[in-house]
Amino acid sequence: MNTASPKMLQCSDMTVLERQNACLKWQQEQLQQQQQQEQQSYFSELSGVFSSQVQGFQGGLVSGDSVLGDMVMTRQVKPDPGLETAWHEMEKVDMAAMGFGPCGYSNGPDFDMNYAISRTSSCPTFVAAAVAAQAVEVKGKESIVSEKMGSTVGRGSFKKRKVDTLQNSKVVAEDDSKRIKACAEEGESKITGPNTNKSSSSNNKNKKETSTGTSKENSKVSDVQKPDYIHVRARRGQATDSHSLAERVRREKISERMKYLQDLVPGCNKITGKAGMLDEIINYVQSLQRQVEFLSMKLAAVNPRPDFNIDNLFAKDVFPSCATNFPAVGMSSEMANNPPYVQFNPVEQVVSSCGLEMGINSLDMALRRTISAPVSIPYASFLDSSCFTQIQPSATWDVELQNLYNVAFDQEGSMPFPSQPFTGTLLEKQNWGPELI
Amino acid sequence: MNSSHLNPSSSLKSRFTTRFLRALTRINARKPISPSSPREIFQRYRRIKVAADKSMASSVRSRRTWSRATLWKLRSRSCLQLASLGRRRSVKTSTITSRQAIMKKTSHEIENKTTTEEDHQDRFVGQADKLRELVPGGEAMDLCNLLDETAHYIKCLTTQVQLMRKIVDFYSL
User: Which GO terms describe its biological process (chain B) (predicted)?
Assistant: First the structure.
């Protein structure tokens, strides 16, 4: 096994490796001595630092890897400022050394040390699990990060990296194999291996052209206990202090939720950017609230008939969706073909000639008339709301609405919606009308 | 994240429908003096709107911040109406000021961000405040939770609108 000392390396980055090896060994000692629980945040930070370096290393640093293979990063790392500074130092050096080209290493696959970087994020993984699944094996009590240098691929396929099985001697805590698996899976995004099994996600991380085949990966197994905070690993080329890490987590969460909202709000697919999206969301929420108000006003205006039976309503409404939505589905497809406003004309004419109270009643009649046409009930309701977008020019309607608002102003100090913006937003509603069914 | 969002299931719909219809019948049972006057209609409209919001919030129970905030608001408002204004106003204002304090705090936290896109972010923050006004109970939430609440709120609002439309149609037939 090419556990040669760094002297074998002839590259200029030997000093880096030497330093790294020294640190690793020292760290190993530290870890083996200590049995206390690690501090997750510090550990994640370390691993973040380390992984960023690891990915920076060219694959050809096999011998360096072999030494690194002994590197042990357990959860028992004591937060040591000295170690931290060493890591940071190494990180800096690594950044400098990233530019070096492939070194002439031709180490065979003698290394049975494996890398399995676990992205120490408690969020569910989104990385292909194939490699990680086999990579992570909990075999002992000690949680150790070991590297496996698989240099079989050679320098040509430096981009593809893979996680091999963990070293048996150095094992992750066996208590939480599931969690370890998850971590390893998560870490796969950072995993780089010589073989080409790895998905290309790691390639994205590999900004620089890594021409060496071997890769270094740290399989850092997280703590046995369930941490109550989120681990984030710094990506390559990004700052790694805790503030920016936390900031990145926050930003990712926010963008996740924005995407979800984008699916929720209709017509938001074309809009990119948070500000525009927020605008749309705000408009949509406002329009929904106004619709609720409008519908409640309509309900207030519609007088229940004396023969109104609430039980019938229950029977029809509580188990409603199936019955009444089927025609809606059919209608909506029809609507998509025909411009829906064509059918609004009769309604519009009817309404424009009436006052508010009369208007609503006649609207109901008009609805019934349209219902007799091949229009389903939900469609009629859609018609109800959408047709008002067409009634904007109707002066009488506006006047009646104005009367109502004046009454409102008399009665109460504040009115939920002034008339002008109301009609304005009704116009906006056009876009959402068809989709609300 | 999606699993944390409650899809407006049929149980939510049925809960909302029953509550709302119950309230509706109660409102309609009041014998109005002049049933068709705008004044009367407006009064009924207010009551119906309150009933709609209340039934929606009660259907969601207290699982969501916005539903809690809505219920709290409605209850405090009804308390205000029942009791004398002078007595209760102090309570209301104190809560409002505490809310404003929280809101200031959260918006200040948001200001501490990376200064990469200052203008964009400022506009973003302004819109976030606007969203806070819209979503009940959103004043005291950071952006992440606010977006969560907004998503759930939008879902429930669409459900509410759908069901109310159906009720309206049923009424109008």
Answer: regulation of DNA-templated transcription
